[in-house]
Automatic annotation (TrEMBL):
Protein name (record): SRPBCC family protein
Domain of life assignment: Bacteria
InterPro entries recorded: Polyketide_cyclase/dehydratase (IPR019587)
Native organism: Pinibacter aurantiacus
């Protein structure tokens, strides 16, 4: 009986410590990558504002099956649906709906010397659950390399 009591108390204390540590972790995670594109600002902005162009360079969109484009700002597939929800002079913001999860992504654009810097980001809001907060620690390692390859592909192909 003493061993069972010790095991239960130890489990509660361990969970409490994990919960306290996770409460200091942020509930919003941003993963971002940037590159310079050798094209005028307006061309890049117009190209990125049309979601139908994304599959030409975006490795995430390229892998989706049964893609449909109800409009220039919307994509649906078996895995995800993406909607461009806002555009401004220098930003394009999209919502990704995947199963029961909604997260945002977007592009910040900065013009300089007939070149455009494109910063692509994903924002995730994680719940207070310790396992979600600890899992969010690897988002950068999971998404970053694919984002880098996608941006390199965008840069190589030019605006066609």
């Amino acid at each position: 009986m003493k061993i069972l009591k010790l095991a239960i108390i130890s489990a509660v204390v361990l969970f409490g410590l994990v919960f306290i540590i996770s409460s200091f972790m942020p509930s919003t995670v941003k993963v971002s990558r940037a590159t310079d594109i050798d094209a005028p600002f307006d061309s890049v902005r117009k190209y990125l504002s049309d979601i139908r162009n994304w599959e030409k360079w975006n490795l995430y969109v390229d892998t989706f099956t049964n893609k449909q484009y109800p409009s220039a700002t919307s994509l649906t597939s078996d895995q995800v649906s993406i909607d461009i929800v806002s555009t401004s002079d220098s930003t394009i913001k999209a919502e990704w709906h995947q199963k029961n999860t909604i997260f945002t992504s977007g592009y910040y654009l900065v013009a300089h010397d007939n070149m455009t810097t494109v910063q692509w980001y994903f924002d995730f809001k994680v719940k207070w659950y310790p396992w979600e907060k600890f899992a969010s620690m690897v988002y950068d390692q999971q998404l970053g390399p694919i984002m880098e390859k996608s941006l390199a592909r965008f840069k190589e192909q030019g605006l066609r």
